[in-house]
Each structure stands twice: as structure tokens, then as C-alpha cells.
From TrEMBL, chain A:
<keyword id="KW-0547">Nucleotide-binding</keyword>
<dbReference type="InterPro" id="IPR027417">
    <property type="entry name" value="P-loop_NTPase"/>
</dbReference>
<dbReference type="Pfam" id="PF00005">
    <property type="entry name" value="ABC_tran"/>
</dbReference>
<dbReference type="Pfam" id="PF12399">
    <property type="entry name" value="BCA_ABC_TP_C"/>
</dbReference>
<feature type="domain" description="ABC transporter">
    <location>
        <begin position="22"/>
        <end position="270"/>
    </location>
</feature>
<keyword id="KW-0067">ATP-binding</keyword>
<dbReference type="InterPro" id="IPR032823">
    <property type="entry name" value="BCA_ABC_TP_C"/>
</dbReference>
<dbReference type="InterPro" id="IPR003439">
    <property type="entry name" value="ABC_transporter-like_ATP-bd"/>
</dbReference>
<keyword id="KW-0813">Transport</keyword>
<dbReference type="InterPro" id="IPR003593">
    <property type="entry name" value="AAA+_ATPase"/>
</dbReference>
<dbReference type="GO" id="GO:0005524">
    <property type="term" value="F:ATP binding"/>
</dbReference>
<dbReference type="InterPro" id="IPR051120">
    <property type="entry name" value="ABC_AA/LPS_Transport"/>
</dbReference>
<protein>
    <submittedName>
        <fullName>ABC transporter ATP-binding protein</fullName>
    </submittedName>
</protein>
Length: 273, 650
């Protein structure tokens, strides 16, 4: 494994992984007296599917929130695309090319699938509110362009049949897919998925896995995901960070991580005889 | 041949259409939320480019080109392009699993396989080691295909581009190939679904397809402005006739849905003028309407009920052009503005001029519902070997219990044993690589056995299909015994899930009934009837009363038919368990296995005939995990009133 090569590496299925896209350096995050994350460092490379796993309360979601810029760590640095990142507003994060989905779906329930996905393109729209209200000239042209992009995503994620359906009427598995669609609509460089398979049945999980792989393959999007389902993580990801009680206890390709005694300990427990 | 003026192949028809209707829409497909349209001229250019690309890849005369995928213009084009090259298109069922595909791909020896998307490509790759003759896999949808080994694989767009780029090299060759096509060359090969034994490849010539398309298009006065929705499997002969044969002959537009799941939305958006659906589609839509009406406000509900009653009374008569009083016409007109029109619009049937259903028996209520709305829904009877059409109903002579008169150019005769035979211009050439089956199906004079039993109604000349010929028997006194005919009538009642009628060689008929747990359970709930099991509900006296009423109603309807009046059900019992494929009582496609049921329930059948009030029985059942167990029950037998046969005046 030459994952430390700054030029990137080639995965077992022949995908080329590029240089470092984001680097976390000695991150420590505290909530009052509680240490959620203790001195964690790892990097995310361009074109990679990077997983963060760990038992409940290990600090995975906190880590994701640090990556997305929502939490600001007390110690440590976040480097994104070769620059040290300063504290940002959420829209600045989106403009930087980071999009995410949420563990407990955060869609606009009353709006149609199409409108929900269109909101994902908000930061890419140039025409102002007045233009859009008048619906004339540039605003109209722009909306057509954005709609085209959105339709490509709808086609890609195979949700044509629910295009006009209000999100509130959809089953859970489809809502997850719509959320992924909205994140994709922002054309992110880095896509963060917080438990994309949670609560899904086997068939829905298989679909979601295929979509995640396809997104990575077709758009070259770098993906960082948190997941509980170990089978899914091991199949999907190129490299895995393992966390336990806010500390990093493993980092590397799935096979290596699976053989790591600390990881086995955290997940399966050890016999004390 | 003069009848078609040298238009003796699909490519020749395409060429004519491109000249005649160049700027008219020929294919539409909804993609990215918008209906994309290709005119005849644009489509013809695409097809030519694909054909040139096929030549560049080395497609030979007589090769078979398998086509697998959902209905898309690109796949229809590939079929015509293959024909241009002198090859034979073989559309396959897209939902077949790889194993099933292996047989057909191996049997036809396809060198080229055109797949709709990654899913289909994966299936072909899975069985590729058993298909040494497959040389090229061509796919339409590029998604997910980037990482595949492309040494023997191409995107259709690339094949097309290659054809366009290299046209000067292959133009002459293509012209020669097209010129070689004649009326007797093979147009398409379609595999039967193979419910009995291995699928058979039915070879249909240009004559079969074009003559049939011409006759049937003229029969229903199809015209260039018509629209069809192509959503039924491409491997099915009906789709080939509607979406290729008739579309090419008439020059109407073929519309392909965005995906299988959007079919109903797409139907509404396109509003086809010519529409085909199997009974289950109509049933499903009707159920949807009824469920939504149950939830509607009281005013809407009352309006719906009132005007549907009007429609049922006078709608079919108005549709058939029969005399109807002015008051009724006015009421129907108002109903059309308030109910039928909006309803048809919601269903996507506003523009339907000609609608067909076939494949299995359609419930009279369902059939009448659509007819009463003013939708010209008709029935036809056909099979792959006939290029679809054997009989069909002319406008104005439509009933739910007949399948119509022989289609133009088709001769039909009924054999001694009641089996229906036909001979027509559409009669297939042969079964591919299977001369024995060809000989046993088609005799030297061209008559083909359908395997169905039926008879012509004397008064109207309409054909009525009663059963599979092998199931039709004689009763002790020589009257006709057609179990499925009666079973179908029984099964039209929502309470009855399954029925098995006995009586072959006996003096009267009896029946087993399976109740529909959903329908009867629902009814029980509304009537405060408590039950704890299927068995208990099935044996409930009030359920027996309800079923008895159904049986007697069926008896009255069966008695109206002098030929079949012997099939009235004298006694019946409601089975204590559902007939199940796991127990071998039905096939996986839910067809009853009579012999097995007769053996297994011999004690109950004996009870039905010896006059016993009830019979105690034990039945072995197989649970889903494969374990076996036994159900014990005392099954009641019940008499049903029958109608004495009416003697007809001599």
C-alpha cells in the first residue's frame, strides 16, 4: 500500500486516486468538559471513497461536522485544497465545494422532489431575487440550465417516477436518495454522507451502494461517509478511519483495518480470561 | 404482392415513410423530463448510421442480433438496422434472468447482442462462457460502463458514429443488402414464453408482418397522426406488430416511456389514440379509481355514483351507435362534462380511438366500465404464430364474452373436438431449428392448431373461446364440459380467488371454491363477523351463503348458452386451505393442476357427488421453509340451484 505517496495511488479495481484534497491535523474538539475528538489526524484524497467508522458515541458525526466546517475544533488545523481553512459560514462551505446528507433526513417535506433538488443549486445561481421574481431574461435562461443539470441527476439516480411527488409522501429509502440528489446538485468536490444506509432494507442498501459507487465513478466526486454497516463499509471504501471514544484507533485500507487488533477489540470486545 | 407495391420489407417501409412523412414525429422518448422527438427523416438517418456501424463491425447476412432492454427508440432502430444488413433481430424479454437468456441466446446463435443498459450487459457477461458465438455486445446507456473491458463491447452511439464516419466504405454494401430483402425473407424471430417446455423461436417473414399490419391497420382505420405507447415487452409479438409493423405501415408515432415506473404518468401525458393493455392493467386502474372515489368528498362521490349509473345504462349503446333517447343522451352529455371526461383525462384515455385487450379473460364489469365511459375498448384473440391477429371485434360489435370475427385474410375453422384452427397471411414460417414442432403445429395446407377450444355464435358469427382444448371434455350425456369457462366466470367475483370445476365424464358438475381472504376478510370486518383463521372464515355459514349466491348467478349465465348449459355447478364446497404452488396444486404462474387436485382431494370430490352433508379430511401442506404438516377440517358441501336447459324451438 502506497497510500502515503503524495502523488496518490491506484486502487485494487484500477481507479486512480489523486493527491490530498483535505487534511485534518491534530484535531481536538471539546464540548465544555467533554472531549468529543482527541488529537486526530488523517487525510482525504481526491477521487477517494473514505469511510469513518466506530461504535456509537465514538465521535464520527462530530468529525463529519468538523470536516464540513460546522464545528470549529479548539485545537488542530483543517487544510482544504492546499489552504488552511479559517472559520466559515455554511454558504461559504457550500461555495467551496462541500455538500452533505444528514443522518436524519433534512428535506423540505412539503416541496416536490424536483424543487428539493433545485435548492441544491442555489449557491450556483447568479440571478438575484428580483430577477427571479420577474422571471425574465437571465433568470429564465438560468433556471433552464439548472433544470437540465437537475434532470441529469434525476435520471442518474432513477427517481423519474417521483419527480413531482411531495417529499413527505415518499418512503424512507427514496427520501435518502432524494437527499443524495440534492447534495449532488451542488456539484461538490467533496461529498459527505452521514449514515447513508441507516434504516434501509437489504435491497435499498444495495441500490444505495451502487449509486455511491456510480457517483464516484461518473463524476469523480470524492466521498467521505460514516456508516455502521461493516459489510457496506468494507465493500465500498478505499480507506477507512476507525474511531473509538474520540480517538483514532485505525487507519488504512479495509483489509488492513479488519485485521487490526484494536479495531477487533473495539467492535467485538475481547475475552478476559 | 401487388397489394403492397414493392413495400416488401420494414426497411422499404421506413424509406417510404421518410419520403412521405419526413417531418412528422415517428418516435418519442421521455428523457430528462422532456419528450424527445425524432421525425421519420431523423429516425431513418439514425437507423442507417447504426446499420453502417453494424457492417463496420462485420455483421453478416443471416446473423441473429439479440435485442434486450426496455422499450426505447434506439432498440427499435437497432432491430430495423439489423434487418437492413440482412440479419434477423431477436428481441428478448428484459426481465428474464441470465439462465433463461442463455437458452435463447444459445439457440438462436446470436453474434451481436444489443443491450439497453448495464443491467442487461451484466446478464450477458454472466453467461458469456457458454455463448462462444457472441462476438459483440453493444449497449445503449453508457452509465456505469466505463470500467468494462471494451475489446468486444461498444456503445451504440460509437457504433453509429463509426457508421457515419465510414459510410463511403459501406454505403454500396448496405444498398445491396437492402435490395436483397424480399417478401419471404425473415423479418423477425420471436421466442414463445415457454410455459410448456423450452421456448420456441417463431420465424416470421416480411410477408407475415407486413400483410398482417396492413390488414389490421385498415380494419381499425389507423392513420399517420395516431400515437401508441410502447410499454409492453419488446419480445412480445404484439409489441412488434404495434410498434414496428403497424407503425411502419401506417406511419404513426411510437412513444416510449421514461421508465417502467413512470408508465402511468407518461400515458397521461401522451394520451395515445391507439392503446393495448392486458386485462390486469385495466383492472389495476379501475381499482385505483375506486379506492380514490371511496376517499372523495360526499358530493363528488354521489355525483360519481349517479353518473356512472347513467354511463353503465346508456354508455355502451351510444358508443356502438345504437338508438338512445334524447333525455339519456343529455344525461350522458352532462355526465361526460362532469365525470367521464375528467376521469378519462386522469387515466390518459381522453384520445383513445381504438383500444384492445387480450391475453386472458377480462371481467365483464371491468370491460363495461371502460366502454361505458366512451372508451372504444375491444378484444382480440391471437398468438405469436399468427403474427397476433386471429380474430378481433369490429367497432360497434363489442362484447366481453367473445373475441370477435376472423381478422381480414384469416380463415378459422373449428375441429370435431372443438379446437380452433386458423390459416392466414400471418401464419409463421417455422419454428427455428425445430422441424418436428413446426410439422406438428402447422399442417401441409397451412392450418395451425391453437390449442384452444371455442365455437362460433350462430347469431353473430363471433368466436368464443371457452378453454384450453386439452381441458375440454364431455359429460356423461355427451354435453360439452369446459371447466375454465365456468371457473373464469366464478373468479370474476372479488370474493372468489380460485375455483376448480369437476364433471368430465360425470352427469353433473361440481366445484371447489377458494375464497379471497382480502376481499372476504374485509367484508367480514365490516359485518362484525369474527374469525381467527382462514379455515374458520372459509367455513362460516354466511360466507357459504354469499358464495352460493355467486354460484347460482354464474349458473344462470352459463345456462343462457345452450352449448355449455351442462356446465352449471350443482354442488360446491369451500376449501379449507388456499391452493398453493408450494403444495404442487398450482403452477408458479397460478394455473390449477387438475390431476393433482383430483387425486389429493378425492375424498372431497366423492362427497360432492355422493350427497354427503360434510366430509372430514386431512390435507398435507408444505410450509414455506419446506417442512410438511397436516390440516384437519370438516368441509361442508352445499347445493346450488341450477336452471333447466331451455329447449330451443326447432
Amino acid at each position: 500500500m502506497n497510500a502515503m505517496n503524495p502523488e496518490g495511488y491506484v486502487t485494487s479495481d484500477g481507479r486512480k486516486i489523486g493527491g490530498v484534497l483535505m487534511e485534518m491535523k491534530n484535531i481536538t474538539l471539546r464540548f465544555g468538559g467533554v472531549k468529543a475528538i482527541t488529537d486526530i489526524s488523517f487525510d482525504i484524497r481526491e477521487g477517494e471513497i473514505r469511510a469513518i467508522i466506530g461504535p456509537n458515541g465514538a465521535g464520527k458525526s462530530s468529525m463529519l461536522n468538523v470536516i464540513s466546517g460546522f464545528y470549529i475544533p479548539q485545537e488542530g488545523e483543517v487544510w482544504f485544497r492546499g489552504k488552511k481553512r479559517a472559520p466559515m459560514k455554511p454558504y461559504e462551505v457550500a461555495q467551496q465545494g462541500i455538500a452533505r446528507t444528514f443522518q436524519n433526513i433534512a428535506l423540505f417535506e412539503g416541496m416536490s422532489v424536483l424543487d428539493n433538488i433545485m435548492t441544491g443549486r442555489l449557491t450556483l445561481m447568479k440571478s438575484g431575487m428580483l430577477d427571479q421574481a420577474m422571471w425574465w431574461g437571465r433568470a429564465q435562461r438560468e433556471e433552464t440550465e439548472h433544470r437540465e443539470k437537475v434532470e441529469k441527476i434525476i435520471d442518474f439516480l432513477e427517481i423519474q417516477h417521483i419527480r413531482k411527488t411531495p417529499v413527505g409522501r415518499l418512503p424512507y429509502g427514496l427520501k435518502k436518495r432524494v437527499e443524495l440528489a440534492r447534495a449532488l446538485a451542488a456539484e461538490p468536490k467533496l461529498l459527505l454522507l452521514d449514515e447513508p444506509m441507516a434504516g434501509m432494507n437489504v435491497e435499498e442498501k444495495e441500490d444505495m451502494c451502487r449509486f455511491i459507487l456510480d457517483v464516484n465513478d461518473e463524476f469523480g466526486t470524492t466521498i467521505t461517509l460514516i456508516e455502521h454497516d461493516m459489510g457496506v463499509v468494507m465493500d465500498l471504501s478505499d480507506r477507512v478511519v476507525v474511531m473509538d471514544y474520540g480517538k483514532k484507533i485505525g487507519d488504512g485500507p479495509p483489509d488492513e483495518v479488519r485485521a487490526n487488533p484494536d479495531v477487533i477489540n473495539a467492535y467485538l470486545g475481547v475475552s478476559h480470561d | 404482392m401487388a397489394a403492397t407495391d414493392g413495400l416488401n420489407s420494414i426497411p422499404a417501409l421506413l424509406d417510404r415513410n421518410a419520403r412521405l412523412f419526413g417531418a412528422r414525429p415517428a418516435w418519442r422518448e421521455k428523457e430528462f423530463g422532456i419528450w424527445q422527438c425524432w421525425t421519420w427523416a431523423e429516425g431513418a438517418a439514425e437507423i442507417r448510421a447504426i446499420a453502417l456501424g453494424f457492417l463496420a463491425l462485420g455483421l453478416n447476412r443471416g446473423d441473429h442480433v439479440a435485442v434486450i432492454g426496455r422499450n426505447r427508440p434506439a432498440l427499435y432502430w437497432s432491430m430495423v438496422a439489423a434487418q437492413m444488413c440482412g440479419a434477423v433481430p431477436v428481441p428478448l424479454y428484459q426481465d428474464a434472468v441470465a439462465e433463461e437468456m442463455a437458452y435463447v441466446l444459445d439457440h438462436c446463435g446470436a453474434r451481436f447482442v444489443v443491450c439497453g443498459d448495464q443491467e442487461q450487459v451484466d446478464k450477458v457477461l454472466e453467461i458469456q462462457d457458454r455463448l462462444p458465438h457472441v462476438e459483440q455486445i453493444i449497449y445503449v446507456d453508457k452509465r456505469g460502463m466505463r470500467k468494462y473491458d471494451h475489446s468486444h463491447m461498444n456503445a451504440l452511439a460509437d457504433v453509429e458514429a463509426e457508421g457515419k464516419a465510414g459510410h463511403y466504405r459501406f454505403d454500396a454494401e448496405l444498398e445491396t443488402r437492402i435490395a436483397e430483402l424480399d417478401y419471404d425473407s425473415t423479418c423477425v424471430m420471436l421466442y414463445t414464453s415457454g410455459t410448456t417446455g423450452k421456448p420456441k423461436g417463431v420465424v416470421l417473414s416480411n410477408r407475415n408482418i407486413i400483410e398482417t399490419s396492413k390488414n389490421s391497420s385498415e380494419f381499425d382505420k389507423l392513420r399517420p397522426g395516431d400515437d401508441v405507447l410502447a410499454y409492453l415487452p419488446m419480445a412480445w409479438v404484439g409489441d412488434f406488430i404495434f410498434s414496428v409493423g403497424q407503425a411502419m405501415w401506417t406511419g404513426f408515432c411510437v412513444n416510449c416511456p421514461e421508465s417502467a415506473a413512470t408508465m402511468m404518468t407518461d400515458l397521461r401525458e401522451i394520451g395515445p389514440t391507439y392503446f393495448f393493455a392486458p386485462p390486469r392493467v385495466f383492472e389495476g386502474q379501475l381499482t385505483q379509481v375506486m379506492i380514490r372515489m371511496e376517499d372523495a368528498g360526499r358530493l363528488k362521490k354521489r355525483m360519481f355514483d349517479h353518473y356512472m349509473a347513467v354511463a353503465r345504462r346508456v354508455g355502451p349503446a351510444i358508443l356502438d351507435g345504437k338508438p338512445v333517447s334524447a333525455a339519456d343522451r343529455l344525461a350522458y352529455w352532462i355526465g361526460d362534462k362532469l365525470v367521464y371526461g375528467p376521469l378519462k383525462n386522469t387515466l390518459g384515455f381522453s384520445r383513445v380511438r381504438v383500444g384492445y385487450t387480450a391475453g386472458e379473460a377480462i371481467g365483464p364489469e371491468i370491460f363495461d366500465f371502460y366502454r361505458s365511459l366512451g372508451i372504444n375498448l375491444k378484444q382480440l384473440y391471437g398468438q405469436t404464430e399468427a403474427s397476433v391477429f386471429i380474430t378481433q371485434q369490429p367497432d360497434g360489435q363489442v362484447r366481453s364474452d367473445t373475441v370477435g370475427v376472423p381478422s381480414p385474410g384469416v380463415e378459422v375453422r373449428i375441429a370435431e373436438n372443438g379446437e380452433v384452427f386458423y390459416r392466414s397471411p400471418g401464419t409463421f414460417m417455422s419454428y427455428f431449428k425445430n422441424p418436428e414442432s413446426t410439422a406438428s403445429t402447422k399442417d401441409a395446407e397451412g392450418w395451425v392448431a391453437t390449442g384452444d377450444a371455442g365455437f362460433f355464435e350462430e347469431a353473430t358469427g363471433h368466436l368464443r373461446i371457452i378453454d384450453r382444448a386439452k381441458d375440454v371434455g364431455k359429460m356423461a350425456d355427451g354435453r360439452l364440459f369446459a371447466p375454465k369457462y365456468v371457473e373464469n366466470k366464478l373468479k370474476f367475483y372479488p370474493n372468489i380467488l380460485e375455483a376448480v370445476v369437476f364433471g368430465n365424464g360425470r352427469d353433473r358438475c361440481t366445484a371447489f371454491i377458494n375464497i379471497d381472504l382480502t376481499a372476504v376478510g374485509n367484508w367480514a370486518e365490516r359485518n362484525n363477523i369474527a374469525y381467527s383463521s382462514y379455515q374458520e372464515l372459509a367455513g362460516h355459514p354466511r360466507v357459504y351463503e354469499a358464495i352460493k349466491a355467486h354460484v347460482e348467478e354464474v349458473n344462470r349465465s352459463v345456462a343462457e348458452d345452450p352449448m355449455l348449459s351442462g356446465c352449471q355447478v350443482h354442488r360446491f364446497c369451500i376449501l379449507h386451505k388456499e391452493l398453493d404452488a408450494d403444495d404442487g396444486e398450482m403452477t408458479r404462474t397460478r394455473k390449477v393442476r387438475r390431476n393433482i387436485i383430483e387425486q389429493k382431494y378425492a375424498d372431497l370430490i366423492a362427497g360432492l357427488y355422493d350427497g354427503a352433508d360434510s366430509v372430514y379430511t386431512e390435507t398435507e401442506v408444505t410450509y414455506e421453509d419446506g417442512r410438511k404438516g397436516a390440516i384437519r377440517a370438516t368441509v361442508r358441501m352445499m347445493d346450488a340451484a341450477t336452471v333447466a336447459g331451455q329447449r330451443r324451438a326447432a
